[in-house]
Each structure stands twice: as structure tokens, then as C-alpha cells.
Amino acid sequence: MSDCLFCKIIAGEIPSTKVYEDEYVYAFKDINPLAPVHVLIVPKNHISGASEITSENSAVVSKIFETAARLAKELGIAEDGFRIVTNCGEHGCQSVKHLHFHLLGGKQLTADMG
Ligand code: 5GP
Ligand code: ZN
User: Fold this and answer.
1) Which of 4, 23, 42, 99 is least surrounded by CB atoms within 10 angstroms?
2) Cβ–Cβ under 8 Å, residues 11 and 26
3) CA distance 110 to 86
4) What is the number of the ligand 1 atom nearest to the C-alpha of 86?
């Protein structure tokens, strides 16, 4: 999508600190990290958010979770633990309308999910 921030990042039109890339998935450091490790993992194909996951496009979601598990090990947060979050829509506080999963770790996260 031409006016989508994360599509532009994936295309290299906007710089990012890449941590992983393959045919389906792109992962990069969040510009405003909320934890020592804060990586965004996104599908290369534009999906606007978690409410738009269907049987036709959901294969990339398993690729994203495989990537998250591998990156957690590589980034040294697998043993102590981490969190994977996706925000959707207004109540979910989604600010970028391209499906993305936050991988957060490297400190004790709070239990508050509200
Ligand atoms: P959301 O609030 O939609 O769940 O998450 C969007 C995330 O994208 C935020 O954590 C925000 O810091 C991050 N973000 C917004 N713009 C940019 C950018 O230009 N580059 C990078 N690396 N992250 C961004
Ligand atoms: Zn997009």
C-alpha cells in the first residue's frame, strides 16, 4: 500500500534497523523502544491489522511466530521470557495500520495488559 508507513519501511523507502528478513517477513527495531529488546515483526504483504487475518493470508502469521521464537533466542531473551503483542483498532491503540507484532523483552514486564 503506497501510503503505508510499514510498507515503505519494507520497501526500503524509509530507513529502519533490520533484524531479520525473508520472503514473507520483515523484522526491525521499534523507533521508540519500550524495553531493552523491542522488535516489530511484520508481514511483507500489507494486512491492515489482526481483524483482517483470514484463511487466505494467515500462513504468514505462523512465519511471524517462528521468527519471534528464533529472534528471542538470538537476542538473548528466550530464557528469562518475553511478550508478543499486536494492537488492533482504536480500542487496541493500533497506530500503524499494517499488521505488526511487538516482541518485547530484556526486563521484567508488568502484568497490566489494560
Ligand atoms: P502500534 O501502536 O500500532 O501497536 O505500534 C506501532 C509502533 O511503531 C510503535 O511502537 C512505534 O514506536 C513504531 N513506529 C512508528 N513509526 C516508526 C518508524 O518510522 N520506524 C520504526 N522503526 N518504528 C516506528
Ligand atoms: Zn502496509
Assistant:
1) 23
2) no
3) 16
4) 4
